[in-house]
Design brief:
Blueprint: H1 42-54, H2 63-74, E1 81-85, H3 91-98, E2 102-107, H4 110-118, E3 122-125, E4 138-144, H5 152-165, E5 166-177, E6 186-188, E7 195-197, H6 207-214, E8 219-226, H7 236-249, E9 260-266
Parallel strand pairs: 1-2, 1-4, 2-3, 4-5
Antiparallel strand pairs: 5-9, 6-7, 8-9
Length: 268
């Protein structure tokens, strides 16, 4: 296993101005733009719809990570208006709403959105490439474990949309898997022979590669590996090992590929 020894965190990178492929959109009078955007990949959407509706139990291991993302946002805002792109089982939305925050969920899966609406949370069917919200309408946008599902073109478009929806000084907070070996999760359908990533991932990131995308549109405050243990699903022995890893190995720069890259960026 690649331990990532010596991997440095990317901090404090400055936005260098938007290049031609990430242009700041013109003023649209505070309304969401009605432009054509790439359709969601039907195979990707079918795969993720299965997990979000038939296998919601798989998301419990992410709860600590999602709590920490909300914690990072709370360092900068008291009662922010927040957006979560990619809802999973809706835990982040419920957790943030419980703090009295105004929360909007954006996801292409209608059933996932309907469940959040039934719980009293504002849900919008949409994609990261075409966020159905007005310009400058959010203080924080959460995007956790989403970028790795996108092509480079979709990621570039998504970052442009996130910048549009964020208010000046607003923050993008999220995670991606750390240095994932995509081949290790490759599956093959025994019926048709199609090969695919188990979770639908299309990209792998190092902190430096991720920062190269983010810095085109945002001021990077943090971009580096972090271990978010799945405390809720661990037995006592696993919890002890996780605590030792956080206390002893991570401070020495030792990271493993089952960690995440945490990124926190600000719209200038």
């Amino acid at each position: 296993m690649n331990t990532g020894i010596g991997q440095r965190e990317v901090k404090g990178a400055n936005a260098m101005g938007l290049p031609s492929h990430v242009n700041e959109p013109a003023d649209h009078g505070g309304k969401a733009r009605h432009v054509r955007s790439p359709k969601a990949n039907p195979r990707q959407q079918a795969l993720w719809s299965h997990f979000q509706n038939e296998r919601t139990d798989l998301f419990s291991g992410a709860y600590w990570r999602l709590q920490r993302l909300v914690h990072y946002a709370a360092r900068h805002y008291t009662t922010p208006e927040v957006v979560n792109i990619g809802t999973g089982d809706g835990y982040l939305e419920r957790h943030a709403a419980g703090l009295g925050w105004r929360v909007t969920a954006v996801d292409p899966d209608e059933r996932a959105i309907d469940r959040l609406r039934a719980a009293g949370i504002d849900g919008r069917v949409g994609t990261i490439e075409r966020i159905p919200l007005p310009d400058s309408s959010a203080d924080v946008i959460f995007v956790s474990e989403v970028f790795e599902h996108l092509t480079e073109n979709s990621l570039t478009t998504g970052l442009r949309e996130i910048r549009r929806v964020l208010r000046p000084g607003g923050r993008l907070i999220g995670t991606v898997p750390y240095q994932e070996n995509l081949a290790e999760q490759e599956c093959v359908c025994p019926g048709c022979g199609l090969s695919f990533h188990r979770w639908g991932h299309q990209q792998s990131f190092t902190p430096e590669r991720l920062a190269s995308f983010l810095a085109s549109a945002f001021a990077i405050e943090r971009c580096g590996p972090v271990y978010f243990p799945a405390w809720k699903t661990m037995d006592l022995r696993s919890k002890v090992h996780a605590a030792l890893r956080i206390a002893l190995l991570n401070p020495l720069g030792v990271h493993r590929t089952n960690e995440n890259i945490l990124f926190i960026c600000r719209k200038p």
